């Protein structure tokens, strides 16, 4: 039996989210999309071992279509993480 799977298919509950300078993602909500974008920013800055240590929402729209997030991204060695803060906006597409 042959099964055809489309790569561009998203789960029925997922929505498309965007952030400046990054590819769009399908996620269940703003928070999940923000976690994906923060992980991408960490890998972009620190390579495959880049890590997100803290992620928080700074402000959001009442209709849940837009939110601004702050994250601490860096490189963890032992019990210490060195890195920097990033701010980014997640928008429902």
Describe the structure.
This protein has 93 residues and is α+β, with helices and mostly antiparallel strands. It has one domain (16-92). Helices cover 18% and strands 51% of the residues. The protein has 1 helix and 5 strands, in the order E-E-H-E-E-E. The model has no long low-confidence stretch (mean pLDDT 89).
What does this entry show, briefly?
By secondary structure, this protein is α+β, with helices and mostly antiparallel strands.
Separation of the first and last Cα atoms: 36 Å
Q: With helices defined by DSSP (H or I, 4 residues minimum), what is the helix count?
A: 1
Compute the gyration radius: what is it? 15 Å
The low-confidence runs, each spanning 5 or more residues with pLDDT under 50, are none
SSE succession = EEHEEE
Mean pLDDT across every amino acid position: 89
Strand content range: over 45%
What is the tally of beta strands?
5
Overall morphology: elongated
Spatial arrangement of strands, main beta sheet: 2-1-5-4-3
Helical content (DSSP H or I, runs of 4+): 10-25%
Largest sheet: 5 strands, antiparallel
What's the domain count? 1
Return the structural class: alpha+beta
From the structure above, extract its key features.
alpha+beta; 93 residues; 5 strands; 1 helix; five-stranded antiparallel beta sheet
SSE topology:
Blueprint (H helix, E strand, L loop, with lengths): L14 E5 L2 E6 L2 H17 L3 E11 L5 E12 L2 E13 L1
Antiparallel strand pairs: 1-2, 1-5, 3-4, 4-5
